[in-house]
């Protein structure tokens, strides 16, 4: 990621059971580890590049493990006062041995999980610690820990290549380059709609979906993947949706931040979700080009729905935020409460209307 090749740490002696940590891979984040005693380690996360803040996302590799031993990890520089770790969230563990032998992937792990204010701080910011105990499943295994299920830029590219090679899906899903990011990575835009029968596609309304403006909110990429799996499927409902709408999809707004393992920012050290009013194309290309794409679509057809997919670190459930104006237009389809209400009626077990908020 930063021109560094992962180097294998050399063990000092044959019986050295010190864990070996590594995070110099795509989307990885870990800055420093201190061994406190034989089975206890203190971890420090890297801030978002070119900032002194936003420590939340972590994703790192651990090797030279011992099975069945009582390890304790403590991450000491979280920046948020509150956390879902106080309400039952657990870290994720992936074991290469379990994946190979038992086809087991990421799973939640950890006992004695505590999230608390510590004595440290920097530049006026208070730090918080997350601590948990656990046991590795195998000796001499290579394991990974993460804040949320990782979804990398490479994962997205593999997914899009599979669509482009599919003789059926590629007919109604066109993949284009929206722009290139600051680091030169492609920001993709997908246009999904069934070919119109005898020039009747012009009255189709548009649905615009974007995701992953905040790199550490990997759940937004998994929700986006679920949506794409569905809309590109051959069910009658997916066909009907493609007959009646034009879907414009930007699946990853901030590929640079995703690649380097940031939590919130792009390579400018800025939160792109706060840059929709900016006209600086050079520094925020994905936002500038997305906004222009939306304006272009609005010139051609009505936009039925625009939804930007995020994750939330402190709130449970699935919900929506909307920006309702006090003088809301009377037409029902521009009212931001309608779609979330319908969603909560059709799947009350998966979507929480009381958690929605419309004056954002």
Automatic annotation (TrEMBL):
<dbReference type="InterPro" id="IPR050821">
    <property type="entry name" value="Cytosolic_carboxypeptidase"/>
</dbReference>
<dbReference type="InterPro" id="IPR000834">
    <property type="entry name" value="Peptidase_M14"/>
</dbReference>
<feature type="domain" description="Peptidase M14">
    <location>
        <begin position="149"/>
        <end position="360"/>
    </location>
</feature>
<keyword id="KW-0645">Protease</keyword>
<dbReference type="InterPro" id="IPR040626">
    <property type="entry name" value="Pepdidase_M14_N"/>
</dbReference>
<dbReference type="Pfam" id="PF00246">
    <property type="entry name" value="Peptidase_M14"/>
</dbReference>
<keyword id="KW-0378">Hydrolase</keyword>
<dbReference type="GO" id="GO:0006508">
    <property type="term" value="P:proteolysis"/>
</dbReference>
<keyword id="KW-0121">Carboxypeptidase</keyword>
<dbReference type="GO" id="GO:0008270">
    <property type="term" value="F:zinc ion binding"/>
</dbReference>
<dbReference type="GO" id="GO:0004181">
    <property type="term" value="F:metallocarboxypeptidase activity"/>
</dbReference>
<dbReference type="Pfam" id="PF18027">
    <property type="entry name" value="Pepdidase_M14_N"/>
</dbReference>
<protein>
    <submittedName>
        <fullName>CBPC3 carboxypeptidase</fullName>
    </submittedName>
</protein>
<comment type="similarity">
    <text>Belongs to the peptidase M14 family.</text>
</comment>
<dbReference type="GO" id="GO:0005829">
    <property type="term" value="C:cytosol"/>
</dbReference>
């Amino acid at each position: 990621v930063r021109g560094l090749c992962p180097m294998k740490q050399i063990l000092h002696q044959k019986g050295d059971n010190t864990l070996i940590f590594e995070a110099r891979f795509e989307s990885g984040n870990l800055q420093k580890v201190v061994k406190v005693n034989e089975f206890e380690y203190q971890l420090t996360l890297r801030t978002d590049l070119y900032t002194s803040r936003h420590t939340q996302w972590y994703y790192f590799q651990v090797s030279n493990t011992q099975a069945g031993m009582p390890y304790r990890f403590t991450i000491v520089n979280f920046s948020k006062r509150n956390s879902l770790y106080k309400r039952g969230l657990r870290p994720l563990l992936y074991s290469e041995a379990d994946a190979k032998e038992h086809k087991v992937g990421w799973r939640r792990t950890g006992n004695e999980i505590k999230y608390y204010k510590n004595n440290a701080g920097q530049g006026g910011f208070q730090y918080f610690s997350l601590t948990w105990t656990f046991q590795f499943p195998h000796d001499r295994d290579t394991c990974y820990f993460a804040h949320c299920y990782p979804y990398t830029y490479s994962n997205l590219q593999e997914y899009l290549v599979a669509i482009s090679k599919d003789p059926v899906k590629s007919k109604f899903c066109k993949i284009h380059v929206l722009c290139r990011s600051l680091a030169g990575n492609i920001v993709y835009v997908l246009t999904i709609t069934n070919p119109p029968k005898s020039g009747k596609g012009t009255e189709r309304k548009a649905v615009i979906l974007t995701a992953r403006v905040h790199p550490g909110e990997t759940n937004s990429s998994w929700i986006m993947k679920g949506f794409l799996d569905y809309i590109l499927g051959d069910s009658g409902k997916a066909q009907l949706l493609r007959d009646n709408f034009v879907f414009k999809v930007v699946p990853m707004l901030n590929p640079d931040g995703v690649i380097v393992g940031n939590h919130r920012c792009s390579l400018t050290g800025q939160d792109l979700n706060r840059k929709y009013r900016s006209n600086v194309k050079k520094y925020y290309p994905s936002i500038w080009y997305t906004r222009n794409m939306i304006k272009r679509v609005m010139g051609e057809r009505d936009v039925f729905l625009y939804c930007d997919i995020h994750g939330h670190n402190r709130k449970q459930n699935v919900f929506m935020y909307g920006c309702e104006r006090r003088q809301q237009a009377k037409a029902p389809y521009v009212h931001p409460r309608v779609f979330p209400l319908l969603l909560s009626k059709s799947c009350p077990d998966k979507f929480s209307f009381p958690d929605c908020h419309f004056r954002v």
